Amino acid sequence: MPIVTLKTKGQMTLPKEVRREMDLKPSEKMMISVEGNLIIIRPLKGSILDIGGSIPISESLKPIGFKKVRKEVWKHIGQKAAVSRDKDK
């Protein structure tokens, strides 16, 4: 198992055998995530869609689904229509 040393500026060099096995080239981007006490380094190859779902997002920051929004809008429109009819009587 290759060992790397963290330099004073937070830099490290990936060992040659790792770069070769992962087919990594100079200037390629990597994504780093922390899972428990592990540091996971993933090469960013392909498109942005390839990393979809790899970054955890809290429930409060996740977008609302279209169907849920549509259901709430129709519910609100129905309530307004019912109140409007009651006023007309």
What is the spatial order of strands in the main beta sheet? 1-2
What is Rg? 25 Å
**Strands, total number:** 2
Low-pLDDT parts are: none
Distance between the termini: 81 Å
Shape type: rod-shaped
**Number of helical segments with 4 or more residues:** 2
Q: Beta-strand level of the residues, as a percent range?
A: 5-15%
The SSE order reads: HEEH
What is the share of helical residues? Answer: 25-40%
As for the number of domains, it is 1
Structural class: alpha+beta
Summed over residues and divided by their number, the pLDDT gives a mean of 85
The largest β sheet comes out as: 2 strands, antiparallel
Report what the structure shows.
This protein is α+β, with helices and mostly antiparallel strands and 89 residues long. The protein has one domain (16-88). It contains two helices and two strands. The protein has helices at 16-21, 66-88; strands at residues 30-35, 38-43. A two-stranded antiparallel ribbon has the order 1-2. The N and C termini lie far apart (81 Å).
